[in-house]
């Protein structure tokens, strides 16, 4: 089995993006699956194109995209992506789409095909906080997740795909409000690793009560 894991480059004036920094720390093999790591640009359109090209060249079984969600306190596994680009800030090439559909012929929303309950449970079982999120936002993170799932459906690919959001790492909170949460990159990476392990070993999701979700 092969898993493609992507992470965004820094954006919004930040010097680092904990998403790809955490991806870089992942081992080359998790639960017997080969891990392929890819940095993608925080640019509307281009990020999805880079993932699509990597899918063609690498032929992965799972695709997991990772992005930063500053303000969240722990790693969150996204349930759904919506067909909307509504950018609060410009991307890394100055694009700031407002109220635009991502794909004219796409569904209003696509749900992850990853076993995210099992992924969260495995992280929690190893003492790491994680939860299921029901909003991937309307920036490039949502777009890359939407385009991934759109591509899988339209091309009839036998691939499972989804998205993970991660918090700021500590240095990013300097100069911000005192209550802005963060998490060390090593902890973020371990949480992602346990999530991937569960995705590799669980063909179907598990039925459990995860408690309060956001």
Protein architecture, described:
It is a single chain. With 214 residues, the protein is an alpha/beta fold. The strands form three sheets. It has a seven-stranded mixed beta sheet, with helices on both faces. Strands 6-9 form a two-stranded antiparallel ribbon. Helix 1 crosses helix 5 and helix 2 packs across helix 4. The model has no long low-confidence stretch (mean pLDDT 95).
| Total strand segments | 11
Q: Separation of termini?
A: 31 Å
> Measured on Cα atoms, how large is the radius of gyration?
16 Å
Specify the overall morphology: globular
Low-confidence stretches: none
Order of helices and strands: EHEEHEEEEEEHEHEH
Mean pLDDT: 95
Q: The biggest beta sheet, please?
A: 7 strands, mixed
Question: What's the arrangement of strands in the largest beta sheet?
Answer: 2-3-1-4-11-5-10
Q: Helical region count?
A: 5
Task: Summarize this entry quickly.
With 214 residues, this protein is α/β, with parallel strands linked by helices. It has helices spanning 18-25, 46-58, 116-125, 140-154, 185-201; strands at residues 2-8, 29-30, 33-40, 62-68, 75-78, 80-82, 85-86, 98-100, 109-111, 130-133, 160-166.
Task: Describe this protein with a few key phrases.
globular, single chain, 7-stranded mixed sheet, alpha/beta, 214 residues, two-stranded antiparallel sheet, 29% helix
């Amino acid at each position: 089995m092969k898993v493609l894991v992507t992470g965004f480059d820094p954006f919004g004036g930040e010097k680092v993006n904990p998403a790809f920094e955490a991806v870089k720390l992942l081992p080359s093999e998790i639960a017997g699956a080969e891990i392929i790591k890819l940095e993608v640009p925080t640019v509307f359109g281009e990020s999805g194109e880079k993932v699509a090209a990597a899918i063609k060249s690498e032929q992965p079984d799972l695709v997991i995209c990772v992005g930063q969600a500053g303000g969240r306190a722990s790693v969150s596994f996204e349930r759904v992506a919506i067909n909307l680009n509504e950018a609060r800030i410009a991307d890394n090439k100055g694009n700031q789409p407002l109220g635009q559909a991502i794909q004219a012929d796409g569904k209003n929303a696509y749900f992850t095909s990853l076993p995210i309950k099992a992924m969260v449970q495995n992280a929690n079982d190893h003492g790491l906080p994680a939860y299921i999120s029901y909003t991937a936002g309307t920036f490039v993170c949502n777009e890359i997740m939407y385009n991934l799932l759109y591509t899988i459906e339209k091309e009839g690919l036998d691939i499972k795909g989804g998205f993970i959001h991660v918090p700021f790492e500590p240095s990013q909170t300097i100069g911000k409000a005192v209550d802005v949460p963060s998490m060390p990159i090593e902890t973020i990476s371990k949480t992602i690793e346990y999530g991937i392990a569960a995705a590799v070993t669980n063909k179907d999701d598990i039925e459990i009560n995860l408690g309060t979700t956001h």
